[in-house]
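Tutorial, part two.
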Amino acid sequence: MSNVSAGIFFMLLSSLSFATMNGFAKALSQAGMPAMENVFFRSFTMIIIVLAIYVVNFSANKEKKKLKSGGWGKLCFRVLMGGLAMVAVFYNIATIPLGTATAFAQSVPLYTAVMGMLFLKEKNGISVIIATIIGFVGILLISNPDFNGISFINIAVGIFSGFSMAIAFITLKTLKPYFDNQFLILAFGVGTALLGAIGMLLPLDGIGGFVMPQTWEYWLIIGMGASGTVAQYFLNKAYITAPVGIVAPIDYSRIVFSLFIGIFLGDELPHLMNVLGILLIIISGILIAMPSLLDDIRKIKNNRKL
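Running the prediction step on this input gives:
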């Protein structure tokens, strides 16, 4: 198997694992677990796993990369925006079909493209601009209550989940010189666990509060944490093995996996217009990644000729 084929395979496994993690989160919400408690347990399991990795790496005496000092303000902002995005996603997972909630979350490239043009002065081609418009048309279709019956709150939360996640990703790029990847994940886990713990104090039905998990629900919590860890592992593996431009668009398969898992958990079959909106979001994401995709394919062809 070539590196490109292996990278695509790893990204498919990552997307399936992320969809499975969201499926566990939805099953827990169906059992009565509030969204904030869900966020807390997801983050708590992340902390345990990352700390275990830290112990293994420390015992192996791996040489550490020299990093810049500072960056704490940016880190806090990244954790806050990423944490709010996770809360928004988990709220929608609990209250609307899983495929639609995932489609909102996967609209991140639309917002990063717009913010890149507005704030980072990035020069995007006409194809990216057209793709962004197509993606927002897709968001309008999945947001239309006449087609899927979702509330205005879910629409606002869905848009916020994609927007805030885009801000978190843009901020993350600026943190690489200051912190290693494991510490960034650990900081995110600690921050979102605190956010979930504080959120449980909110007197909002379905959002705040604490429900003691039954014995069988702990297996769902472990499954949620394990599948999320596996997803992150294969995501990193995909980006290391193959060019980013080729494997990144494959992550949109997460929406398809989520649709089927949601239906398995009891979601209604999506309306035709809802499916069309999801397809437009997928197409727009692939089109936004197309310049990188073509560039990576060109590099691979040139390397084979040498």
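The longest helix spans residues 272-305. In part three we will examine how such features are distributed along the chain.
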